């Protein structure tokens, strides 16, 4: 179903049924409001207000490091876009807390999963997230990832976390029990305010960082977080290696 927009001068109101919106050419002075409504794979219901401009903090060595790791995760098909997976929607996203403003974070923009390499225009900067109202304010040429609320939940739960990687890994997700991974309950609907309290409790119960956990209410959903990009990425790959080793043992 196509994304529809109705212009309201001097701004535009965007309601996305399909989270792969057909956006007009960006106007740096345009503020766009919108709502992700789809219940499709990986798409969370939340409202956003977007200040149409390049994300100002999408620069620096740590951001470049995150972008490089994102390409590695894409090559490993831990994020991406494929016609045979999740109804063809893009999946997986990564984020980084802004050193210049710890209350803000950079995150890949909505449905950019298909890109092997991203540019600055493929990122949004979330400046404020309301976990009760499920609303975010952001700066970017495209809306923030439909998973921005979950990233916001994690950053709010632990001020020491500066990087969050969200991937889709059947190998890890299906072996949550065997790997003794932390996880949210399968009965907790993904992308709902209820998830925020569960994530908060999860982080309080498991103090070790970096942390890799699965969301059992979200098919194949895996999150890795840590104090920096490398720490989170290495933790994720360590768990993936353990999952593959378990599979090998089961077959032998």
Kindly name the structural category: alpha+beta
CATH architecture of one domain: 3-Layer(aba) Sandwich
Low-confidence spans: pLDDT under 50, at least 5 residues? 1-29, 37-42
Distance from first to last alpha carbon: 46 Å
Q: How helical, in percent, are the residues?
A: 25-40%
> In one word, what is the shape?
globular
Look at the structure and give the CATH class of one domain: Alpha Beta
Briefly note the CATH topology name of one domain.
L-fuculose-1-phosphate Aldolase
Number of strands: 14
Largest sheet report: 12 strands, mixed
How large is the share of residues in beta strands?
25-35%
Average pLDDT number: 83
State the helix count. Answer: 5
Radius of gyration equals 17 Å
Which superfamily, in CATH terms, is the homologous superfamily of one domain? Answer: Class II aldolase/adducin N-terminal domain
* Order of strands across the main sheet: 1-2-3-4-10-9-8-7-11-14-13-12
Order of helices and strands: EEEEHEEEEEEHEHEHEEH
